[in-house]
Amino acid sequence: MQSIYIPHLLNATDRTRFLQFETTFDNLATLTPVRAEVSVRHGTTFIEVRGTASTIVTLTCDRCLQQYNHRVALGAEEIIWLDEAAGAGEGLPLEQEVSAEDLVESLSPNGHFDPETWIYEQICLHLPQRQICDQSCQGLQVEAAESNPPLTDGRWSALEALKQQLAGDEYQAN
Prior knowledge:
The protein has 2 helices and 7 strands; from the N terminus they run E-E-E-E-E-E-E-H-H. By secondary structure, it is of the alpha+beta class. The protein has one domain (about 5-125). The chain has a 5-stranded mixed beta sheet, covered by helices on one side. A two-stranded antiparallel ribbon has the order 1-7. The protein starts with a strand and ends with a helix. This is DUF177 domain-containing protein. Pfam families: YceD (PF02620). InterPro entries: YceD, YceD_plant. It comes from Leptolyngbya iicbica LK.
């Protein structure tokens, strides 16, 4: 899908463009394609983006490390400001002080808006932070080998022999 050239929105009916699409993302393991509907409205100094999306993603449980499927259904909306200086920040240092007013999304009024990237970002924001496959998940089950001696690196055998010798000497001294 191609991105939307923002000035073309001014010529659309009600300055709005509606899109319906199905897609997959390389960085997101999904069981089903992402089904999305997006509307982008030009509001002179901003664009208003509204969208819905649904898919089933494959996640890895943080407790037991098993994969499980999680349904994502979202409805999101965002105001993106149109600012001539939006693309000019590429030569700035990686770390700098930013005021609270500057923490807004902005695009150039002569730039492009990519609905697929926006949907991808919204899905990522809707993924659970704690990825647990089931409320009763016990986590990794580690089986202790009671009858087998612990495995040791052969290079430590001389130290192990010295340790046993010292333990025997200590026992005889008592």
